[in-house]
Every structure is written in C-alpha cells, then in structure tokens.
C-alpha cells in the first residue's frame, strides 16, 4: 500500500509488534499465560500495519497462515498438551511470516535456535538467587513446563529483524 521495500516493511512490522511481544514475555514468565487480548492485538497489528506496508496480494494471502497454524496448533494441543496460549499466539504471528520456501526454512531454523537459547537463558536466570529474589512471584520459576511464549516471541522478532537486515 505504501510502496515500502521488503526491508522497510519488516522493520515497520518489527516496531509495531515490539510492545506486544514485550507484554507476552512478561505475562508468560510471571503467570505462564499468554492473554487473549495480546493475541488479538497481534492480529490487529497485522490487519492494520500489514495492510499499510505489504503489497495487497501478499497481505491477503498471508491471512491463510493464521487458520492453518491454528489447526496444527490445536492438533498439537490435543496430542502433546501444547498450551493454548502458545497455539493462539503462534497462529496470530503466522501472517507475519512469508510462505517462500527459503523464508520458511529461515523461520524453522530460527525457531530451533530460539528454543535452545531461550530454554538455557530461562533455566540460568531461575538459578540465579538475585533474579529469583527480584521476581519471587513469577510462576515460570517453579513450574515444570517451560514458558514457550518466549521462544515464539524471539522467533517472530528475530525473523522480522533478519528480514529487515538482509533484504
């Protein structure tokens, strides 16, 4: 719509989703929950900002990603117990990703790297007494499950940041 380059569009989307991503990280660490309103906000950002910065045909086709990832996520929830907040956030984030095979591979590699890095960072942080003392009521410190929203946020921001930097 605005005639931005791929790099400029990715940067604009990065900036637009950053506050929502920060909020998701906080709520997932503190409560082990990703709020529905955060998911809806992410969808709203794509609806408005995506419409402005992406070519119309690209923007329209990317809406297909949301229900596809939602269905896959629901199946993962049923089969493996993946959290519904994670499922809904992943579905809401899906339209921000290109379906180009090279970009899909980039997203998969980023997801894997972010999983390892976020898991390690979370486990290290919860083992540091000063961090635990500063955040004593955070549910993720004592929970058996890992707050996967961290990984999803890191993947989304990493993807948009890389696309902004390399294109």
UniProtKB/TrEMBL annotation:
Q: Which UniProt keywords apply?
A: Membrane, Transmembrane, Transmembrane helix
Segments crossing the lipid bilayer:
6-25, 37-56, 62-83, 104-125, 145-166
Name the domain of life this protein comes from: Bacteria
Asked whether the UniProt record includes Transmembrane among its keywords, one would answer yes
Name of the protein in question:
Prepilin peptidase CpaA
Organism of origin: Rhodobacter viridis
